[in-house]
């Protein structure tokens, strides 16, 4: 049965719970929401509430009764962490999202935004990847566990929407970077990893910087402040269970990214390629025509975004 609810728009005094507020995405969301005048933000540290624990989550929702939820909490990592830890990526993401989405519905949350990932799309999806490519082919094996968990999250939100009329929406960001990212050399994504590598290589006077894979794969990178702006835009303007891609609409090769990072960091040595490491999916560029048609576009160019992130890294991670 289809139950339609006439939902009130998201408004400034609404109590908004940001799950995962310490991470790359959650912290950017808090900054953006505060800047936009949302004053009633609700956050919980991991020590206060374990999102994998249904009891913890139920108690929190019963007590706080948020009006709006943004689910930015997730177990995330780069290509190596994803391929080494499929159990944790599958299980912990399913646990967190199942607990939060169910509790949100049970406690009467008016609107929920679920954050997916561009890795939900098939490995050989058409490029740029339209939203309609979901579930049309096999996934990239290095991040299949994470992708399956995220697809389950999308489907759960759509099921709540269809069965109970819930206003649960889902956005699919492309590869993100910015402040509060994980800059670990092993478990991180490529952009923060190469920033740290180039910084260390420069400091230590090295002649060479080792980059994983062949350098041929292509990726699209979006500054997390742009993502946060897009999320607030969707919260205020978008009320459909159909997924929406969020990206900048341009991609570059990993070789070009490495060269750009060396330039920003001012490392003048050579690049070397560790081809024993996986390339992952050959290309991941989102079709962003849907969010453009809705009226949103990114603002931060890649060089500027990398320079800002390097500055943040220097101030916070060294
Ligand atoms: O960012 P990344 O780890 O993840 O790797 P994915 C992107 C590309 O950069 C791969 C290469 O071709 C890597 O081999 N690369 C080069 C490096 N040097 C490095 C390095 O030092 N560190 C890392 N990490 N990569 C992830 C998924 O895929 O993207 C997640 O595993 C998620 O599930 C995320 O979807 C957005 O773009 O390949």
List the secondary-structure elements in sequence, H or E. EHEHEHHEHEEHEEEHEEHEEHH
CATH architecture of the domain at 16-180 and 221-250 and 285-300: 3-Layer(aba) Sandwich
Shape: globular
Ligands bound to this protein structure: guanosine-5'-diphosphate-beta-L-fucopyranose
Name the helicity range: 40-55%
User: Which structural class fits the helix and strand makeup?
Assistant: alpha/beta
**Share of residues in strands:** 5-15%
Strand line-up across the major sheet: 2-1-3-4-5-10
Your description of this structure?
With 318 residues, this protein is of the alpha/beta class. The protein has a domain at 16-180 and 221-250 and 285-300: Rossmann fold (3-Layer(aba) Sandwich). Helix content is 42%, strand content 14%. It is built from ten helices and 13 strands. The chain has helices spanning 24-35, 54-64, 79-84, 86-106, 144-164, 190-203, 224-237, 254-265, 289-294, 302-316, and strands at residues 16-19, 41-42, 68-71, 111-115, 168-173, 175-177, 208-212, 218-219, 221-223, 244-246, 252-253, 270-274, 283-284. The strands form four sheets. It has a six-stranded parallel β-sheet, sandwiched between helices. Strand 4, helix 5 and strand 5 form a beta-alpha-beta unit. Helix 4 (86-106) packs parallel to helix 5 (144-164) and helix 6 crosses helix 8 (254-265). The radius of gyration is 19 Å and the shape is globular. The termini are far apart. The model is unreliable at 1-5 (pLDDT under 50). Guanosine-5'-diphosphate-beta-L-fucopyranose binds at residues 78-79, 82, 117, 119, 142-143, 146, 175, 188-190, 193-194, 211-213, 217, 219, 254, 277-281.
């Amino acid at each position: 049965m289809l139950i339609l609810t006439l939902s009130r728009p998201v408004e400034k005094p609404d109590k908004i719970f940001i799950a995962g507020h310490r991470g790359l995405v959650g912290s950017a969301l808090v900054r953006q929401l505060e800047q936009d005048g949302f004053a009633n933000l609700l956050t919980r540290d991991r020590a206060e509430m374990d999102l994998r624990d249904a009891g913890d989550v139920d108690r929190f929702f019963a007590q706080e009764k948020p009006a709006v939820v943004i689910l930015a909490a997730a177990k995330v990592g780069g290509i190596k962490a994803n391929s080494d830890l499929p159990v944790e990526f599958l299980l912990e993401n399913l646990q967190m999202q199942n607990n939060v989405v169910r509790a949100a519905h049970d406690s009467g949350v008016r609107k929920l935004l679920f954050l997916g990932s561009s890795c939900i799309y098939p490995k050989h999806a058409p490029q740029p990847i339209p939203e309609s490519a979901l579930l049309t082919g096999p996934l990239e094996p290095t991040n299949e566990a994470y992708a399956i968990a995220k697809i389950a999250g999308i489907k759960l939100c759509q099921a709540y929407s269809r069965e109970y009329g819930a206003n649960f929406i889902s956005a699919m960001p492309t590869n993100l970077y910015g402040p509060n990212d994980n800059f670990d050399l092993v478990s991180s994504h490529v952009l923060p990893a190469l920033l740290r590598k180039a910084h260390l290589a420069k400091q230590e006077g090295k002649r060479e910087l080792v980059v994983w894979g062949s350098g041929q794969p292509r990726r699209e990178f979006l500054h997390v402040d742009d993502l946060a702006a897009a999320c607030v835009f969707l919260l205020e303007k978008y009320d459909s269970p159909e997924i929406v891609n969020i990206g900048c609409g341009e991609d570059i090769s990993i070789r070009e990214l490495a060269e750009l990072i060396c330039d920003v960091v001012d490392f003048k040595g050579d690049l070397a390629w560790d081809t024993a490491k996986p390339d992952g999916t050959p290309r991941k560029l989102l079709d962003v025509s849907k969010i453009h048609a809705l009226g949103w576009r990114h603002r931060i160019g890649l060089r500027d975004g990398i320079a800002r992130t390097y500055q943040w890294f220097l101030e916070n991670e060294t």
